[in-house]
Amino acid sequence: MICLSQFALGRAPPMAKPSVFRAEHPMALDLSPNPISHGAASSSRRRDLVFVVNPRGASGRTGKEWKKLLPYLRSRLSVDCNICESLTSGPSHAIDITREAIKEGADAVIAVGGDGTLHEVVNGFFSAGKLVTNHNRESAHSTALGLIPLGTGSDFARTFGWRNDPYEAVERIAKGVRSWVDVGVINGETGEPHYFINVADLHLSAKAGYYASRYKRFGNLCYVIGALQAFMGHRNQDLRVKVNEGEWEEYSQVTALCIGNAKYFGGGMKITPNADPRNGYFEVVILQDFKWYDFILKLLKLYNGTHLSVKNVTSRRAHSIEVEDISSGDSIYVQSDGEHLGFLPRKLCVLPAAIEMIC
């Protein structure tokens, strides 16, 4: 399993060049340096920005809003930037687009959509357990991550206090201020490591997210529908947890376990209120022996982040955590950034200051 001590920030192995920038797209990929004499006086080259757009996000609303935004974006950024647009065609396409853009030396890859699109773009920054790097080893800059929130939840943006306003996002991109952010990595018994930037969670909340993904056409109501469906037949189960490579501990009757790199999930629920994607740690919140009516009675506390004082809620800070099921019941669902990843066991580690983000 890959963890913090084993994580190599080296060059990823070469990959076949994916068909990312399709001919029907309105702008072609051109990431060659193009110095200009106007714009930012200190810059010797135009910034190469690749916008990864999920046109089907939020039941098609993302594509419609992007078309409205594009003329303003061009007028605001094209003086100093080469603007490249790439529309995703299906699951994991954003990962391929991001990897190719980084290899070609893009100044930034900007996710346009919700947390799902952002999640894929973040995973595109990595390949085979390493950061993807520019083909030009002498390049003085790294590729930054950007975000224009246009999705259903846009929970990660809430941690920074960003509104779901694409025009504000364009202004952040125009300023180009960068900050290093942490990324979480999830390992199972087999397969490639998986990365997340927002929140990973287990059991009831992960099952609710799995069902909610089927109802995104209803907007944020999908989270309510998903939670109701997940409650049907749900049973709290006993888990074994190892924090920071310490001793195994048993937690009985676990309802949900949330590992926050950031604060919000589920359409605005402040589940890990002390998490900060720039402090090098996760916040781990464990809910035990919750009944369906507990969520109704404590819903306001869960949304405003004051639930840590509630009985049967535990909060811990961790740079790594392993979780195993010790019950003989149903499989324990695992998700990260709202994406279903399978079932336990899992090990999660934080990668401090893994990538730069336009903030």
Could you give a short account of the major beta sheet? 11 strands, antiparallel
* Count of all domains: 2
What count of helical segments does DSSP give?
9
Structural class: alpha+beta
- The first-level CATH class of the largest domain is given as Mainly Beta
CATH topology of the largest domain: Tumour Suppressor Smad4
Quaternary status: single chain
- C-alpha-based Rg, rounded: 20 Å
Summarize the structure.
The protein is of the alpha+beta class. Helix content is 24%, strand content 30%.
Secondary-structure topology with pairs:
Layout (H helix, E strand, L loop, with lengths): L46 E7 L7 H17 L3 E7 L5 H11 L4 E6 L1 H10 L1 E2 L2 E2 L12 E6 L5 H5 L6 H10 L2 E10 L6 E3 L2 E5 H9 L8 H11 L5 E7 L4 E13 L21 E7 L3 H6 L1 H6 L8 E6 L1 E6 L7 E4 L2 E5 L2 E13 L1
Parallel strand pairs: 1-2, 1-3, 3-6
Antiparallel strand pairs: 4-5, 7-8, 7-17, 9-11, 9-15, 10-11, 10-14, 11-12, 12-13, 14-17, 15-16
Helix pairs in contact: 1-5, 2-3, 6-7
Organism: Citrus clementina (Clementine)
GO cellular component, one term: membrane
Pfam family, one: YegS_C
Protein model, in words:
This is DAGKc domain-containing protein. Keywords: ATP-binding, Kinase, Nucleotide-binding, Transferase. Residues 44-190 form the DAGKc domain. There is one protein chain. With 359 residues, the protein is an alpha+beta fold. It folds into two domains: 47-176, Probable inorganic polyphosphate/atp-NAD kinase, domain 1 (Rossmann fold), CATH 3.40.50.10330; 199-352, Tumour Suppressor Smad4. Helix content is 24%, strand content 30%. It has nine helices and 17 strands. It has helices at residues 61-77, 93-103, 115-124, 155-159, 166-175, 204-212, 221-231, 292-297, 299-304; strands spanning 47-53, 81-87, 108-113, 126-127, 130-131, 144-149, 178-187, 194-196, 199-203, 237-243, 248-260, 282-288, 313-318, 320-325, 333-336, 339-343, 346-358. The strands form three sheets. Strands 7, 8, 9, 10, 11, 12, 13, 14, 15, 16 and 17 form an eleven-stranded antiparallel beta sheet that branches. Mean pLDDT is 85; it is low at 4-30 and 32-43.
